[in-house]
Each structure stands twice: as structure tokens, then as C-alpha cells.
Amino acid sequence: MEIQITGELSEYRKTLELILPALGITESKSAAHTLRICRSEQLSLKIRGGHAEIGCASGPMLARALTFFKANSDAETFELTQKPVFDTVGIMLDCSRNLVPTVDAAKAYLLRIALMGMNLAMLYTEDTYEIPGEPYFGYLRGRFTQQELRQIDDYADALGIELVPCIQTLGHLTHLLKWDAYHEIKNTLDTLLVDGEETYAFLEKAILA
Questions:
Q1: Which are the contacts of 119, defined by CB distance < 8 A and separation ≥ 6?
Q2: Contact 142, 100 (CB under 8 A)
Q3: Which of 113, 159, 170, 195 could in theory staple to 118 by disulfide, Cβ–Cβ 3.0 to 4.6 A?
Q4: Facing residues of 186 across strands?
Q5: High-pLDDT (> 70) share of the chain, %
Q6: Alpha carbon of 45 to those of 2, 3, 77, 113, 141: distances in Å?
Q7: What is the pLDDT of residue 98?
């Protein structure tokens, strides 16, 4: 499907570059169908013949509107208005059990939630991210490197999604504490030793990373 897109595009150019191919839409200045994008605090979509207008206030709102546009592009007339109830809506992706997602898999999740209008993604990582100077942290667990997390964050930002790192600072660290290197900060099988100087030195590294 080819469309000519006009309106306030500079803010959403990166979003469009990712969303349009996913929906099978090609941007063309000579296309008969036109789509105008304008700013609006609520999602709106109006279709009249071969012309459409989208109102949005964020990348995910635009992405969601485009899914409705693609689904109803053949309609002679179509109109939709949705007002967000929450400032943030999203998912927490478990990256600590079974397999850690690859960068491409994480991007696929982000693209899908953007198409649903979500603007928040949390990566739940127990010991599956890189801490410089801690070689046993995430050892043989497929941990994210810092460069990989930057790639995922850049992709999320292009979609208008806030990426939030979620880490553990007390428990749920069985895979970490099985290593003798962390004996000094271990209390129980999966819990850190509270009030230990070594524990807080380690947590500073984790939070900084």
C-alpha cells in the first residue's frame, strides 16, 4: 500500500521508518492516497475516501493509529477517537528465566507493543546484564552486554517507548550466589547479606552499570 504523508513529521520520522514497513505501507509523494498527521492529546483517525488524518501525541499513539488506518484503509468513511486513561502503559519482559532475548527479539517485542499503543517496556534482569569487573555476574547465562542494551534503548526511543531496567538488589539471585566468588555477600540460597560492606559495594556497581 502506497500513501503520501504530510503534516507534522519531524518528531515522528524515526517512528514512521520503523512502523510503516511492519504494516506493509510504503511512503510515496506521488501516491493517490494521502495521510495527514497532526498533534492531538488524544488518538484520532478520520478516513474520507482516499484521504485520512491522524491526531496523536506520541510515537506509540501514532503507531496504534496506523494499525487502525491499515485495517480500515478500504473503507469509504471511518472515524475513531481514543483518549488514553493512563500516562504509561506497557509490559515487563522477563529476561532472567529460560532464554535471554536477543537484540532482534527484544526489538520485535518493542515493535509489537508500539503497534498496540504502549509506551513503556521494562526488562527484568536478575543477573543477565553486564557489570564491568564482575566476570561471574551472568556467567554462561547469555547476559546482555552494555552495547546490546544501548541498541535496544535506541530502538525503543525511536518508537517513543521508555525502556526501564529492572534489577534485583536483595533476593532472587540464585544463579549469581551459586558462585564462590560471591560468598562474602551471600546470606541464603538466593538472598544477599544485608548490612555487609561488600554487599553495598557490589550493589553500587550493579546500579551504576
A1: 58, 59, 60, 61, 88, 89, 90, 160, 161, 162
A2: yes
A3: 113
A4: 192
A5: 100
A6: 18, 15, 10, 19, 45
A7: 80
> Residue 1 is which amino acid?
M
pTM higher than the cut 0.90: yes
**Residue 186 DSSP one-character state:** B
Q: Which residues, in sequence order, are bridge partners of residue 124?
A: 94, 166
Quick one: pLDDT band at residue 56, thresholds 50, 70, 90?
Answer: very high
Question: What is the residue-wise DSSP string for 19-65?
Answer: HHHHTT-EE-TT-SSEEEEEE-SSEEEEEETTEEEEEESSHHHHHHH
Annotate 53-91 with DSSP letters as a single string.
EEEESSHHHHHHHHHHHHHTTT-SEEEEEE--SSS--EE
- Report in angstroms the alpha-carbon separations of 202 from 58, 171, 197, 205: 38, 14, 9, 5
In this prediction, residues 103-107 reach a mean pLDDT of: 97
Q: Which residues on adjacent β-strands are paired with residue 122?
A: 92, 164
Position 51, amino acid: H
**Amino acid residing at 102:** T
DSSP 118-139: --EEEEE-SS-B--TT-TTTTT
Nearest to 35 by CA among 56, 14, 18: 56
Residue at 24: amino acid letter: G
The pLDDT-based confidence of 43 (bands split at 50, 70, 90) is: very high
The CA distance from 130 to 145, in Å, is 5
